[in-house]
Fold this sequence. Notes:
By secondary structure, this protein is mainly α. It has helices at about 10-25, 60-75, 80-100, 115-135, and strands at about 35, 50, 55.
Amino acid sequence: MSAAPKYMAVQGAAMIVAAALAVIGVLGFIPGVTSGLDQLTWFGQHSGARLFGVFAVSAVLNITHLVVGAAGFFFARSYAGARAYLLVGGLLYLGLWLYGVLVEFGSDAHVIPLNAASNWLHVGLGAVMTLLAVTLAGQHDPTKRRARIRRPATR
């Protein structure tokens, strides 16, 4: 009988997503990587900062990416936690995409800076996280052993 792997694929995927989100959160505060850093606001639609010169960011949005990344490392410790992180996180980012699509740019309802590039990023991230949660969940949790079913001997 082969030994169960230490980490399942869903856990590895959660760690990769968590690392990417943590890096994005840090990069949002680095001059040169984020243009207009002197125009970075805590929140609101009027932040002039752009990650890679493209994605609208604010301090709260950068911190949110850091927190969601840290949560991913925490939840990736277990199979069920990693799957829940990817599923809930994916749905959260899809919700953020819907918010960006449905709320008119420039309206007072925009409490976080979003632009078309940010919307595309959020729909892609949400779709990937959700798909990873669903497709990698087909593996069996190694912590749950299957009971062997003994069949009665036939004569």
